[in-house]
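Internal tracking record. Fields below are filled automatically when a chain is submitted to the structure queue. Please do not edit lines marked as system-generated. If the sequence contains nonstandard residues, flag them in the REMARKS field before resubmitting.
Queue: standard
Priority: normal
Entity type: single polypeptide chain
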Amino acid sequence: MKICLVSPYDFVHPGGVTEHVRHLADELRRRGHEVTILAPSSRVPDDHGIPGYVRIGRSVPVRSNGSVARIALSFHLVRRVRSLLSKSDFDVVHYHEPLVPGLPITTLRFHRGVNVATFHATARRNLGYYYGRPFLRRYFNRLHACICVSEPAREFISQYFEGDFTVVPNGIDGTRFHSDLPPVPELRSEGMATILFVGRMEQRKGLPVLLDAYAQLRRQRADCRLVIVGDGPMRWAYERQCEAKGVPDVAFLGHVSASVLPRIYASSDIFCTPASGGESFGIVLLEAMATGVPVLASAIPGFAQVVEAGRDGVLVPPRQPEAWARELAALLDDPELRRSMGRNGIAKARRYDWKVVVDSVLDVYAEAQQRSRAHLVAASTTT
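SYSTEM-GENERATED OUTPUT FOLLOWS
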């Protein structure tokens, strides 16, 4: 098939949806499909060296759901999109967050073929969806099939739009994340356990909770270090916080390359993600599990979809540093439990390999094509 994947977000800026689209495109190509990716970018010129990628518009930052989304907002989108669609005969156009203003809605407006959507987000509410329903429904009704990455994502979008939503989870690349990776020597030392955080430096990711918990832990013991991977607007404040409180053995690595990240997971003894909310799934949890690392995660709906408490990880109340410190201490004191959770995590992660997940996506494409044909038959009959 000729497949077009449409993302509203800056394609050269790290993010969960962007990574999802990249890996989905790679696996679809491995299956023999021809894949084009449409997304904005803050970097020019158009040639980014990414197979099948077409830059549509420059991205601008917009605050959304406790984060910053970089989306395309341009008066030239209509011309670029119509020109590309007129030259291409896509069998399926697959929109990620299809109702985000800009590129997805513009493409959905002009594409006359099979339309599939994936909804990634979850939140307590969305004022844009609430007040924009009369306008957005006309675009939602153009979708022939809808995917949600988790039950929380399905529950969120179904508050605003009624539809038949199929849950297909995020995937991980089993060739990159696995249990046989060599650790990074600098992150391993005798008698020191490594606690790892991976995520953007923004409020909803909850890093201050982990920093407070780690500070409490280090007042009681000296056999652990904290490694923090990621960047963002809050990084300088978190670094100053550690310096001001004199918290020892904290390493801020910033952004690391995709080739190095799996080895950093493999260098850790415990992986922590203390997000306070707004997470529909938690792909970093599966990345850690795939490398055999037990996880501590906030007890929020998106993470509870992934973690089986007591078996492959621990769910901890969000925003409670004392509880995080207690659970960290308990895992540090029980190496056998860590090993058991690591083994169970490896087994679970295999079920989320992109090779498995793409089968479900292709099933949805086939269903959407059937619905599209049925609509065309019905329309021809009525005329």
